[in-house]
Specification:
Layout (H helix, E strand, L loop, with lengths): L17 H13 L5 H21 L3 E11 L5 H11 L4 E8 L4 E11 H12 L4 E9 L4
Antiparallel strand pairs: 1-3, 1-4, 2-3
The structure holds nickel (II) ion (NI).
């Protein structure tokens, strides 16, 4: 899906970890992109669409937030616990899985107003060392 026609092009310089870039290049190679720029544009569009979807959601919802985080990141485990305690009433369940030497996987089941779910998800997303945050929601009672 293409968004409305963008006008003009602006060049930006971005610093990325080399392993992140090489994985990205491998994936876009396999998907037939002719240029890295086009793939990055599509990735940014997908990010915007995801954000706009989160913005539009409303009413009581049930869903999950999943994410991976680096447990060796100083203070991160405590911050994640703090966020979950802050949103206590809406968290129905959580599961923690130790993935490997440095990564942990967590899944939180939430039921609340969509705006609060978005707030919780954005709080988690904004923490340094948290990767692959995924939010899924559905409406109960339909
Ligand atoms: Ni762990």
């Amino acid at each position: 899906m293409k968004m409305e026609e963008e006008r003009g092009l602006t060049r930006i310089g971005v610093s990325l970890p080399s392993n992140l870039l090489s994985k990205f290049d491998t994936i876009i190679g396999g998907r037939g992109y002719s240029s890295r720029s086009e793939a990055i544009r599509d990735a940014i569009r997908a990010y915007i669409i995801e954000y706009e979807w989160m913005e539009r959601e409303s009413g009581d919802e049930i869903g999950t937030v999943t994410y991976i985080y680096d447990h060796s990141q100083r203070g991160l485990g405590d911050k994640l616990t703090e966020v979950q305690h802050h949103f206590l009433g809406m968290i129905k369940s959580s599961t923690h899985i130790h993935l490997d030497g440095e990564n942990c996987f967590e899944i939180i089941v939430i039921q609340s107003d969509a705006k609060k779910i978005k707030e919780l998800t954005e709080n988690i997303m904004s923490l340094k060392g948290v990767k692959h945050v995924k939010l899924t929601t559905t409406h109960g009672g339909i």
